[in-house]
Amino acid sequence: MANTSLNDSDNSDMVLADFPQHLYMLASAATDEHRLHFVVQVLDEVAKLFQEDHSSAAWGEVTVDHFLHSVTQQANGLRSCYQHLNRKNRRLHMYFKTLAFDLQQMEYSAEAWEMVRAAVKLHLFRAQLLVQPPMAGQ
């Protein structure tokens, strides 16, 4: 699940967990309710990830607080659009857990946080595609 290369003396060759494309493909074929549930889980997992030690990141505390507030607010808003489903996507959860582990192994460095930022950006983009209504004529 993770594509990591650990070297105790140098973290420069380390990469984070592989992006779970297959989970997004499965979610895109699911019902509207399940897609919303998947997106809420993505937002919750992202929020949890950014509660890790981000003191080495290139952004300030206020920026992270605003980001976390926005992500949490969006997740809460989407939760109101479907009946609560108790079951989380275990593979998605394990992906984010691996991402957090990789971040820890890279000692929460600025480089690691930039890699996480890029991954989260892709997650948010893909999540948006799952909930965005299809364009007319498609």
Could you list some keywords that capture this structure?
single chain; 138 residues; disordered N terminus
Structure characterization notes:
- This protein is mainly α and 138 residues long.
- Helices cover 60% and strands 0% of the residues.
- The chain is built from five helices and no strands.
- Helix 2 (32-49) runs antiparallel to helix 3 (61-79).
- The radius of gyration is 16 Å and the shape is globular.
- It starts with 20 loop residues before the first helix and ends in a 7-residue tail after the last helix.
Low-confidence stretches are: 1-12
Large-scale geometry: globular
Estimated radius of gyration? 16 Å
User: Which percent band covers the strand fraction?
Assistant: under 5%
Q: What's the mean pLDDT score?
A: 85
SSE pattern: HHHHH
Question: Structural class of the secondary structure composition?
Answer: mainly alpha
**What's the end-to-end separation, in Å?**
34 Å
Number of strands: 0
The level of helicity is 55-70%
Number of helices: 5
Biggest β-sheet description: none
